[in-house]
Amino acid sequence: MSPVVVEVALAERSYPIHIGCGLLADAARWRPAVGGRHVLVVSNDTVAPLYLERVTGGLEGCICATLVLADGEQYKTLDSAARVFAALAALGANRDATVIALGGGVIGDLAGFAAACWMRGIAFVQMPTTLLAMVDSSVGGKTGVNLPAGKNLVGAFHQPHAVVIDTGTLSTLPSREYSAGLAEVVKYGAIGDRGFFAWLEARADALAARDDGVLAEAIATSCRHKAGVVARDEREHGERALLNFGHTFGHAIEAEAGYGALLHGEAVAIGMVLAARLSARLGRAAAADGERLARLLARFGLPVDLPQGFSAERLLARMQLDKKNLSGRLRLILWSGLGAAELVDGVEADAIGSLLVEAGSRERA
Ligand code: NAD
Ligand code: GLY
Questions:
Q1: At a CB cut-off of 8 Å and minimum separation 6, what does 234 contact?
Q2: Domain that residue 316 falls in
Q3: How many domains, the chain?
């Protein structure tokens, strides 16, 4: 399949998402996004040995430096951002410098945040190498780092100058990480595109087998959805919140499990199924749609039921702390069926609590 370009059309500045196999080594495609002479490539010690040379090989003529951080969410910190600043200072980077983020969402969020801060904002290019980063975190300009007090508490909206998705890099991605990314792909069908959902159902085996053509098409469709939402609601005043379908349940499950026990996409898969079941229980959607969603996620090897031992009370307490809630009223992304997500205000805590109690016993039954 020849490379595809999806445009993120923003009022201030638009940018391309390039999607295709082998694009990291195809510098002619992404070099136009690298403005000045100074370039810092940020990666981690898992991804760099695999792919860094392909990127630096395309930077001839630039004054280039690389920064390879340790791998892991625990390094998405202000300390790591300070290391990026130190590398930019050592490089002599001016306002026309470019930061390239090569890696998954951790590197993309961190390097993007550092680019947003350096001299009040310099260019950056996202080169995502996980499926999750390709279809979600690299597009849309949310950047940030974690604090001991919580995830992503410090950040900035800072749009990249280009996103370069080399689908070939997915060949080395561990299978749990790959499945976790598929949860976000399924989400786009679930929240806004029944046709895409049916397309995914029809090609689930090819996707599970990482067929490059099918995968590139699934990524392109996902990116088109994300680009559309971001163009209509860049700063999340409305529609962009729908991208959090399943995430309020998911974040609570992820935190309750202990960070690292469940991958984000795994927790979101369980969360989307719970959101669909809650929607059915509240009479907003057909229960059959939720079961169809659970079947597709399970075909991708994702969990769809609450693992044993979760306390409904503690999960609910975590959900009540969610950023989307206003004046103590629970706000959740629910749906009226496949392809139709909506933000619902004032969801009764009792309804969520009894769903969670039942979800726990469902798994144990
Ligand atoms: P990650 O960046 O930790 O990558 C997962 C693992 O895969 C890591 O060990 C990484 O080194 C490894 N890896 C990456 N690419 C590889 C490859 N091609 N081959 C082999 N191994 C590879 O995790 P992630 O799921 O990509 O991202 C999660 C992060 O993204 C979280 O910090 C989350 O907060 C953030 N996020 C941000 C947004 C946003 O809009 N900015 C959206 C969703 C998630
Ligand atoms: N990942 C959610 C967003 O970009 O808004």
A1: 10, 140, 141, 157, 159, 240
A2: 175-364
A3: 2
